[in-house]
Amino acid sequence: MFGARVPRKEDARLITGRGRYVSDVELPRMLHVAFVRSVHAHARIRGVETTRAAAAPGVVAVVTGADPDLAKHRLRARSALPTYVETEQPILAWPKVRFAGEAVAAVVAADRYAAEDAAALVGVDYEPLPAVVDVVGDRGRAIVHDAAPDNVLLSRRFENGDVDATLAGAAVVVERAFRTNRHTAAPMEGRGGVAQWNPIEGKLTLWSGTQVPHLVRHGLADILGLAENRIRVVAPDVGGGFGVKAILYPEDVALCLLAMRLHRPVKWVEQRREGFLAAAHARDHHYAVRAGFDRAGGLLAMDVRVACNAGAYSVYPWTAGIEALMAGGLLAGPYKLQHYRCNVIAVATNTAPAGPYRGVARPATTFVMERVLDLGAQALGLDPVEVRRINLVGPADLPYTAATRLVHDSPSYPVCFEKAVEAIGYGAFRAEQARLRQQGRYVGIGFANYNELTGLGQAASAGPRMPFRTGHEGATVRVDPGGAVTVLAGVTSQGQGIETTVAQIVASELGVPFDAVSVVLGDTDATPFGLGAFASRQAVIGGGAAMRAAGAVRDKVLRIAAHLLEAAPEDLEVLDGRVAVKGAPGRAITVAEIARVAHLETHRLPPDTEAGLEATRFYDPIRGTFAAGSQAAVVEVDAATGALAIHRYVVVEDTGRMINPLIVEGQVQGAIAQGIGGALLEHLIYDDAGQLLTGTFMEYALPTAAGIPALDLHHIEEPADNLAGVRGVGEGGTLGPAAVLANAVADALAPFRVELNELPLTPARLWGVLTGETRPEYARRESA
């Protein structure tokens, strides 16, 4: 089963409308919650008037941040980095609001309609304060947290070699500023939760669409002062997460506190407008870069300053440093670079908090790095493809220790790139480009190479210095007396097919039919401890735990079978649920028969063998493994309108061993679609007062099927150095599109001598660059 293109187990229920999401959870006597959200980005709260709302039909309770039971609970994301400034996030804002959309009160009623109607009756007396929105232009306008008077929540310098001397001796120094666009995951299913308190057992249950149920349980235990065995977190089917659901939000805590106070279940499901206002944002970065090249195109040194907009709060548990640290640590990507200095800061602003989003910072750093390479090639008069060939880490360089001390283990960077160059037809492209330009058509080609650090073990996850390491996962494999197999896995699903992946691993390792394996995910009362779904780690680490547990069960199956068949264990093989003597298939026994002996006929077990047939194992790969990828695209720009069309798109990824190629291809295709949306369309825009201007799908454009080109996918299966030989594939596809498309557009518009150094690449922006309307620090137009 390992490597088989089997349909997903989940699809039978998900595509027929039989999935069970948070919104499907219905409990007796359940109440519904609506949040009152701040209309100001920054203000003092003088008072909250709740009398009218409390008297409204159907209302059971109205609470505010001034309520002592809520005010004493705060979220605090912790890090031991010496430059990290720890701040508090209230459950309901009091006595200040720090971004438009922050919850200031909660109304609990018999149904959501009554709760929303009553929420409109809550009156909040605000004293508006100046707001800081941009991390470069207006950092001094206001102080977001008193603990950080300069609004810098984290700073760090990454440095190696002699940057200044190397830049001074470079043949060419490229100096540019870049900006990437703030956007959000916008999953099909928004956030939501149902909380229930059982006063008899003293137990809290939270149904949540979270990606990290065990981390949520741990966080709730810390905040609420409950033992972890008094909290159960259940993640049912999840309609997409992409990182935005890997956070413990104030709304989650509020639901739990309300359920504990009222002794009735309470439910909240996010409206789309709430999602845009208050769910985590990402990718609002500024980069100032100096990069030095030798005459052959070799990258010698980089001096970089990065400012990441962290928003109003440090998200739990990842901290405000999640994007800044990733940007500084992985900016060089798959390229050789010895002399490197990067100063990163995470800046607090009066905007929605920034958090993890598929690819975490690397779509931005890949955009910057690949633009720098194209600009260096242009300044030197070299082919950008040749410049990449010179600078990529190759097999002869391994193991390659980057300037940020990460160790590269993939020999596939040049292999992926050459396949992409060949598949896109680069050899014939320039002649075709010249021919089309004579007709007044502007086509261009762009490339991007990237690496994705996947399956981070305990060593690789040490950088943020949070009070936990994200390096391990647990799994239990259990064979019941009838021979059916159940896997209880610490990993959890957000729609990416992990239920199928785990079942394939266990079926393959245990030697039983795929349909005999059931998988239980996302229930902290049922599964071993696991960290959850993020950082392309589930197949690498969770798959490794399942493989180890299944291997332990298989060993016991063979020991029992050897005893029953009077054969040596090494002479047996397991296939399709049968254990047979090699070369004598007639001497066989089924796994179901062995399971019966293990559970019901224990007198037949070998001496010193325990009853039962199950095992729990944990796996930590210690270090992560790099996945390699290359993307290329051919685009056409209408110079009169700025309209952009993607004619061809090629992607080549080193996936390691593929457990299920169908799932791998779906992950890559979906990631590229999200990357294209971020590159061309999506943009969360605040005005100077901190008001979100693009807070509905009328203003915030997501990619549609009509806008995504046919993708030419290619795979390389270079086994990784971990238990299953796999590499994560969940995020890599998002890393390339912004870089590929920006370079392709710049190549198409080369006759106009313009540059594209700010995202997104909307028609309005392209038209602005062509007409000279765009701000000069991010786009340049040179006179002919």
Tell me what the structure shows.
The protein has 784 residues and is α+β, with helices and mostly antiparallel strands. The chain has 20 helices and 30 strands. The strands form 8 sheets. It has a 7-stranded mixed sheet with strand order 3-7-1-14-11-12-13, with helices on both faces. Strands 9-17-16-15-10 form a 5-stranded mixed sheet. Helix 6 (213-224) links the parallel strand 12 (203-208) and strand 13. It is globular and about 85 Å long. The mean pLDDT is 96.
Shape call: globular
CA-based gyration radius:
28 Å
Q: How many helical elements?
A: 20
Content-based structural category: alpha+beta
Regions with little confidence, pLDDT below 50 for 5+ residues: none
Helix content: 25-40%
Strand content of the residues, in percent?
Answer: 15-25%
Q: Please count the beta strands (DSSP E, at least 2 residues each).
A: 30
Overall average pLDDT: 96
End-to-end distance: 61 Å
Spatial sequence of strands, sheet with the most strands: 3-7-1-14-11-12-13
Biggest beta sheet summary: 7 strands, mixed
